[in-house]
Structure formats: structure tokens, C-alpha cells
UniProtKB/TrEMBL annotation:
Cofactor: FMN
Keywords assigned: Detoxification, Dioxygenase, Flavoprotein, FMN, Monooxygenase, Oxidoreductase
UniProt organism field: Nakamurella multipartita (strain ATCC 700099 / DSM 44233 / CIP 104796 / JCM 9543 / NBRC 105858 / Y-104) (Microsphaera multipartita)
PANTHER family with a match to the protein in the record: NITRONATE MONOOXYGENASE-RELATED
Name of protein: Propionate 3-nitronate monooxygenase
Taxonomic lineage: Bacteria, Bacillati, Actinomycetota, Actinomycetes, Nakamurellales
Amino acid sequence: MSGLVDLAVAATVLAAPMAGGPSTPDLVTATAAAGSLGFLAGGYRTAAQLAAQIAEVRAITPTFGVNLFAPNPIPVDPQAYAQYAARLAERADHFGVVLPPRPIEDDDGWPDKLDLLIEDPVPLVSFTFGLPPARAIRALQRAGSAVAQTVTGPAEARWALDAGADLLIVQSADAGGHSAVFDPSVRPPSPALPDLIRQIAATTPRPLIAAGGLSSADRVAAALRAGAAAVMVGTALLLADEAGTSAVHRAAIAGRPGPTVITRAFTGRPARGLVNEFIVQFEPRAPLGYPALHHLTSPLRKAAAAAGDPEWVHLWAGTGHGAVTPGPVADILRRLAV
């Protein structure tokens, strides 16, 4: 097993990638300074933006990873898209934004980001949303990177290992934000995280990193006892001083101990967040379709966030959000470590 894989599991508690703002270079470097490893979130960034963040982090620490969205588009039905856009129109008018009239189906700049990481390798590359081609995994490994694949069940784990992944990030349905499930038309499986770890650990000696609902040291300990080499936390870091979490998201996490649900209303693929008016109104009518729905609702969500209105913003959070506390990332990781 390479030293780069050992690097990925050297610490007990790692910092998960959180695309869309929370994962910043400051969060990643502070995590490294605390003796752990954090990930830059490549999702929703151009290759040039990601390259700039890599350079910023590398100037301070060599200990970090990069996460990419593996290409796994789910085309939206044009008629369903038009109907959903029409339902959103009144709220879009309220915020003074224009929604895309036709579906935007893109690959999040996948070829350029993959080329960047092959030409300028980082210690660890992780994937979510789907399984990249085996040739892409091999190219990254030849360049010197270890490769981690996010999975939600034993079948996905087998496919990832067959494709050559060095280690697995095992995500339970308790995780905040997008589920990594390969087939977004299927509800993410819901076994408790320790049970899910045991199921997958029984089939492979490769290192497993546990993720999902890890809001306390007791839950971290349970995941490690089940066979995880380390854990990865995201929701627990949303209020960290170094996180780029938006003001409206911070306020919601800090003061809104309500329930979370899995919804596809915002992006067209399942994600867990705090219940708000957007989910109540639109979840029953939301079609499947990523990234088309992400692009459709993005202007509305950005405008609502700018206005400080939490009812029309995605408030990603895992089931352990009630235990989240503010402070330096080093203190948060220390409280969770066992």
C-alpha cells in the first residue's frame, strides 16, 4: 500500500469536501495544521479556479486532497423541466432573477479538471456522484495520486474496487448534502453507518473512511470499531471559523434544530438538508435530472442567500446537525477524535 494511501488515513477525523463554498483553502490548511487531512472541493469550480486553490494550499502544506464530481449525468425530461420551471417562476420573479429556459446539461468541466490533476498531481483524489472510468483512475495513480471512491453500499464498493480505487469513502444516508449514490433514481440505502462499514469491511482489506451523521466522539468511535480506518466529517465543520459557509446557512445551522430530509427539489439528485419552504412546496413535484435542476434553481438560491432568506436556499445538513458548534477547525476535530 502506498504512502499516499497511508497519508489519507493517518488521522482519525478528516475534513470532508463541501462544494459550493464551505470548503476553502483556509479550512484545508487549518485541518493540516491540526494534524489531519482536508479536501478542496472541485465541484462547481472551473479548472483554473481549482488550480489556484491547489497552489494556495500547496504553498502552506503538502497534506491535502481534491474531490471531483465523477461524470454521471441524469438527463431531465424536457417537459418535466418546463413544468418545474413554470412552478418556480413566481418565486424567481419575487427575487428578480431569470431562470434558464432550457435544460443545461454539462459535465462540470470534468476533462479539464482531470487533466489538471494528472499534470499537477495531489496526494489524494476522491470522487463522488459516480464511478470514473478505470483508465482515469489508473492515470491519476500513475501521476502519483492515491484514489478514493465514495460509495453508499456493498455493490458500489465492489465496482469501485474492480475499477482500481485505493480506498473507499463509505457514506451513510445520514450525511448532509448530496448523496454519493451511483443511481440517483434510487433512494440512498439507510443502514446505520457502523452496519454499513461492517458489510463492506467484510469484503475487502482496503482502507475504509466512514462518513455520515458523525456529530460526536461516540459516533466516531462506533464507526472505527466497525472497521473504518478513519472518519470524514462535513456538517460538523459548517460553523468552523475557516469554513466558507454562507451567512444564511450558518444562521440556519446555528439556530434551527429542526428535521432534515433527503430531497431532490434543488438539484435533481438526492441530498439531505434542513426542511424549509422550498422543500415543502417543490419536493413532491421535482423531477429527476442532474445537473439540469441544479442550474435551473441556482439563480433563485443565490438571490435568496443574498437576501438572507433561508426558506429558498439549500441548507445542506446531516442528521447530526444539532450538535454542530462554532470555533476553529482544530478544536472541532479535537472534540470528535477518539
